[in-house]
Design a protein that fits this description.
Layout lengths: L2 H5 L1 E2 L11 E3 L14 H14 L2 E9 L2 E8 L2 E8 L1 H14 L11 E7 L8 E10 L2 E7 L17 H12 L3 E6 L6 H15 L5 E5 L10 E4 L8 H8 L6 E4 L5 H12 L3 E6 L4 H10 L4 H7 E14 L2 E13 L2 H8 L4 H9 L7 H10 L5 H8 L10
Helix pairs in contact: 2-3, 4-5, 6-7, 7-9, 8-11, 9-10, 10-11
Length: about 400
Amino acid sequence: MTSRESRGAFRPNIVRGLSSVLICAPSVASSSPNSTPDARVIVDQILDDAVKSRASDVHLEPTADGLEVRFRIDGILEVVGKHDLTVGRSLVARLMVMAHLLTYRLDIPQEGRLTAAVASSPQPLDLRLSIMPTMHGLRAVVRLPAELIQPHTLEELNLPESVLQGLHRFAASDAGMLVLTGPAGAGKTTSIYALLQHIAATSPGLSIITLEDPIERDIPGVTQIEVAPFGELTYERTLRSILRQDPQVLMLGEIRDPATATLAVQAALSGHRMISTLHALNPAFALARLMEMGVEPYQLSSAIFGIVTQRLLRRREGSGYRGRLAAAEFVAMDDPLRAAVLKRADASQLMKIYAAQAGFRPMRAAAVDFVHRGWTDDADVLRALGQPDDRIETA
């Protein structure tokens, strides 16, 4: 059986960068009624095509009549192939075997790591696999290595100048807390990694430690610890211990609960540089949420150095998109904002105050700049930022 027969028929130009897309129907999946497609060959081809397409994730989605293969490219899921039920089950099983998961357990979620060699990568890929039971069978999601597509330096992030300046000021400081906000997939971790790499390069000799769930990529000069939020090695427990490990710069993957929020703020108040993410709509909502978590205003006003909010836009290239841009805004904790926090001002009041900061540019203004430069378009700004809302945005 040839490799082409193993992969089934081809349909070109569905996804940018792909010379072909896997479409494996029962009538074309094999060269004879008794032959079976080789799941190893198909899985290798899917992963290879994902790398060529600059995909961040591969989804194997079971449906009522088969299995769909989707790539997440520039934040958007695109269907790139379909297989019949039998082949689909064999592909998921192949991935589970590679990740040393329990193929006979069809009723529980499972997670693991696997190493795969693909033609388009000079070295084997370290991949993460997540398995979830659904009504139509096991759903598999493969996360590709972040270093394949992520920028590595602050300058490569293409952030607005006001945000880049704020990050450089934080990198040169000796204490305080930087909070990055935005929804999942907004590029917060990518920005943090670039910032940590900058700090490690410009301030050699610092003790830099991260607590992550999970670790996305290796950063030279940084001690990285993978926590288990629902196991023994939780954010709270690990952070308490790490503070005795003589850290100077700490990165906390996410503030999820009041105990972690309090510890993070206390670390910043005790002379550490703290970096963390928080799910919040904008800087004002981030401050309000931290107060709701029980952080006292006097602690918050003293600990916070600045807050970054960002969203990712797709970059225009010819008639389509390729790559992404970060529309972002940076808010510094200046005296007027500090006074408002001490008075427990609500989010709308906080927004009015920081909108008057010298050099502040709202995230939507940065996105509009990108449109004017021809780097993206109105449709993608609308997709990423939604309709303007005067109640939660500053102009």
